[in-house]
């Protein structure tokens, strides 16, 4: 290993003895590691919608996209309303 000047003179490279004393964070700081541990993910939910590909006229697409995000949800809601009206 080439010898280089330390980047920070106040923080010299660790000696072999210091490196030998190092321990994993789970051993040295178990409380801190436990506090930052990620939660366990719960069971997956079933998908509520089915992915499909449909062709829409430019007018229909422009109408629903005009209000911004959520345009696919608005199309879904409009189709549900048509279904509900036909059930009567």
Q: How would you portray this structure in words?
A:
By secondary structure, the protein is mostly helical. The chain has five helices and no strands. It has a domain at about 60-85. The termini are far apart. The mean pLDDT is about 90.
List the helices and strands and how they pair.
Elements (H helix, E strand, L loop, with lengths): L15 H6 L3 H4 L1 H6 L22 H8 L5 H17 L1
Q: Segments where pLDDT lies below 50 for 5+ residues?
A: none
Shape designation: elongated
Major sheet description:
none
Number of helices: 5
| Helix-strand sequence | HHHHH
What's the β-strand tally?
0
- Quickly give the structural class: mainly alpha
Distance N to C terminus: 82 Å
- CA-based gyration radius: 30 Å
Which features does this protein show?
single chain, 88 residues, mainly alpha, 5 helices, elongated
What is the gist of this entry?
With 88 residues, the chain is mainly α.
């Amino acid at each position: 290993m080439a010898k280089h000047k330390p980047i920070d003179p106040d923080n010299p490279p660790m000696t072999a003895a210091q490196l030998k004393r190092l321990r994993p964070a789970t051993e040295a700081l178990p409380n801190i590691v436990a506090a930052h541990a990620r939660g366990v993910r719960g069971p997956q939910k079933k998908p509520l919608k089915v992915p499909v590909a449909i062709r829409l006229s430019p007018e229909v697409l422009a109408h629903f996209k005009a209000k911004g995000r959520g345009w696919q949800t608005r199309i879904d809601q409009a189709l549900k309303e048509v279904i509900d009206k036909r059930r009567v």
